[in-house]
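Please check this chain.
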Amino acid sequence: MADRVYLDWNATTPLRQEAKAAMAAAWELSGNPSSVHSEGRRARRMVEDARNAVAEAVGGRPQDVVFVSGGTEANALALTPGLRRGTGAPVERLLVSAIEHASVLAGGRFSREAIGTVKVTRAGVIDLDHLRALLADGPPALVSVMLANNETGAIQPVADVAAIVHAAGGLLQVDAIQAFGKIPFDLASAQADLVTLSAHKIGGPKGTGALVLAEAVEGLEASLRGGGQEFGRRAGTENVAGIAGFGAAVKVAMAALKADAARVRGLRDRLEHGLRQTPDVLVFSDDVKRLPNTVLFTAPGMKAETAVIGFDLGGIAVSSGSACSSGKVQPSHVLEAMGYRSEVSQGAVRLSLGWSTTETDVDLTLKAWRKLADTLVKGERRNTA
């Protein structure tokens, strides 16, 4: 709707025109990408073009890109016991930071007994000392740390994590789903062994994602068995249209990354400045490096569900920092891991911007916030009178 402002880009992004065009072209193809005839080869070419685009974007090899149904499946596939680097010892346990996405906290194919949790600081950054202690107390581990948190936007020191993990004989999986296309990132700079990505966070279609492995990583077992698609790592006929849209979105996102990040950061800062005009507004993780597009905030007396509805009625689409699949607001496990009380975490609202966000969008959002804040402040005064 033209009269509405969309500030929920961390949940999903609009489909880029380039992705839509690539998908339309794929829908015109009749061939199966595993077939050897001309029709099949045309479909295969689309898949491989997208694979090359993803590999180039993260500095990997095309043969190490595995297309899957989305970020959740990518994470589940990555979290595999027995992974190893070259002739190194296979991992026997999993360590995850306390602020990971639910698909990582679920542990993939590791048993619950083999999963440990790494603490985070008050600012929402992984506690490196706790990680060292956990790694020293047991067999080689696969460690999973997101590049940037989907709620707070806090960027994790994945290169430092990698150095600690590799020194202990372990492997590092980086969930880059929220950060990909927003900040510079590649396998080499992060020293990651596995990386997971999702198309719909960068303007591609929903239902498509990828797992990218570093060159020397071995021992990945397919979670879906059947045919030999995706180099034997994920059976099933490839979603050619989804993959084509993913590849097109990757190319556009990478080309525009620096310019978009700088522009969006300026809008985010302007938005934060306006929010802080309300007394006692708290912006989470504002003292560490964050994604340029993300603001997670609360104010005294604010309930996330009420605020999200209030924004929506004002024409602004935002989210709580803690919406589950049912849409019901739950206490944020991220904020609770950071040490905030449930009353605080239940009042957190996330505003996330994107490439088409404008100054007018920010102004309209702040106008809606001022109206909402007046109601919240009056309600808080009544409650404390």
Notes: Confidence is low (pLDDT under 50) at residues 381-385. The domain at 5-13+257-384 is CATH 3.90.1150.10 (Aspartate Aminotransferase, domain 1). Residues 127 and 338 are 11 Å apart (CA to CA). The chain has two domains: 5-13+257-384, 17-251.
